[in-house]
């Protein structure tokens, strides 16, 4: 159950796009199409942004999109807005009834 | 609307026990799997445990296995986490989270968390 690997930080100017990677193994990200992404503003509850690699819950803007290739999943935030500044975590079902989060990426809007 | 309210956190000495609760409202609690997730100070999210909607199955992370037990009382709409043999490294903000309908355990609603501090 090792954490999925994310870059510690990412940044972009308002209106630009930023992409966050999430690298796992052939036992989690690479095996299951069950990658989720969460947005976490410090002091608040985490919010589900993406599930099943690329699906958005109702209410999540289509500026947020997800994809996967092999053992690496990605979250792209398009049209960056000030309120997008937050920590972002990927996660994956990892088999044997377990779950694993990524190491987290702090997104800064310049 | 969906509400999850954690309680039971506090300061406890290493080796002691603590029980966290998560009161759920706004949805049919007994129809959803539930999870505990924690975040140590300055660290990322860490999955702790899961329990099936009817309590028939459960699992926990290796880091807490044999020390923490997840349970639920569907008649009281409440999720629990019994934490025994606490260690300094268990210090964290503990969230309860609801598992959504979709496959792969997306956690679609979270509480605000309850802080557990393990210190002598």
Low-confidence stretches of chain A: none
Biggest interface between protein chains, with counts per chain? Answer: A-B, 32 and 26 residues
Ranges of chain B where pLDDT stays below 50 over 5 or more residues in a row are none
Helix fraction of chain A, binned, reads under 10%
Topology:
The complex is a heterodimer of chains A (110) and B (120).
Chain A: E1 9-12, E2 18-23, E3 35-40, E4 47-50, E5 64-69, E6 72-77, E7 86-93, E8 99-101, E9 105-109
Chain B: E1 3-7, E2 10-12, E3 18-25, E4 34-39, E5 45-51, E6 58-60, E7 68-73, E8 78-83, E9 92-99, E10 107-110, E11 114-118
Parallel strand pairs in B: 2-11
Antiparallel strand pairs in B: 1-3, 3-8, 4-5, 4-9, 5-6, 7-8, 9-10, 9-11
Would you mind describing this structure in some detail?
- The complex is a heterodimer of chains A (110) and B (120).
- Chain A has 110 residues and is mainly β.
- Chain A is built from no helices and 9 strands.
- Chain A has strands spanning 9-12, 18-23, 35-40, 47-50, 64-69, 72-77, 86-93, 99-101, 105-109.
- In chain A, the strands form 2 sheets. In chain A, strands 1, 3, 4, 7, 8 and 9 form a 6-stranded mixed β-sheet that branches.
- In chain A, a hairpin with a 5-residue loop joins strand 7 and strand 8 (99-101).
- Chain B is mostly beta strands and 120 residues long.
- Chain B contains no helices and 11 strands.
- The A-B interface holds A 1, 3, 32-36, 38, 40, 44-48, 51-52, 55, 57, 87, 89, 91-93, 96-104 and B 35, 37, 44-47, 50, 57, 59, 61-63, 95, 97, 100, 102-108, 110-113.
């Amino acid at each position: 159950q090792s954490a999925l690997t994310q870059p510690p930080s990412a940044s972009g100017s308002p209106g630009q796009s930023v992409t966050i990677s999430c690298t796992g193994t052939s036992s989690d990200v690479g095996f299951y199409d069950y990658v989720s992404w969460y947005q976490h503003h410090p002091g608040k509850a985490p919010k589900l942004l993406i599930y099943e690699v690329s699906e958005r819950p109702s209410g999540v803007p289509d500026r947020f999109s997800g994809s996967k290739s092999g053992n690496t999943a990605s979250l792209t935030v398009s049209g960056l807005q000030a309120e997008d500044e937050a920590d972002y975590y990927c996660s994956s079902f990892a088999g044997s009834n377990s779950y694993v989060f990524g190491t987290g990426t702090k997104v800064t809007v310049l | 609307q969906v509400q999850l309210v954690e309680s039971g956190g506090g300061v406890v000495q290493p080796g002691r026990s603590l029980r966290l609760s998560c009161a759920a409202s706004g949805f049919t609690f007994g129809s959803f799997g539930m999870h505990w997730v924690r975040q140590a100070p300055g660290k990322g999210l860490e999955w702790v445990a899961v329990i099936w909607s009817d309590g028939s199955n459960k699992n926990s992370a290796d880091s807490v296995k044999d020390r923490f037990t997840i349970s639920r009382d569907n008649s009281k709409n409440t999720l629990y986490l019994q934490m025994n043999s606490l260690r300094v490294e268990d210090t964290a903000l503990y969230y309860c989270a609801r598992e959504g309908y979709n496959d792969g355990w997306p956690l679609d609603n979270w509480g605000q968390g309850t802080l557990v501090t393990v210190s002598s």
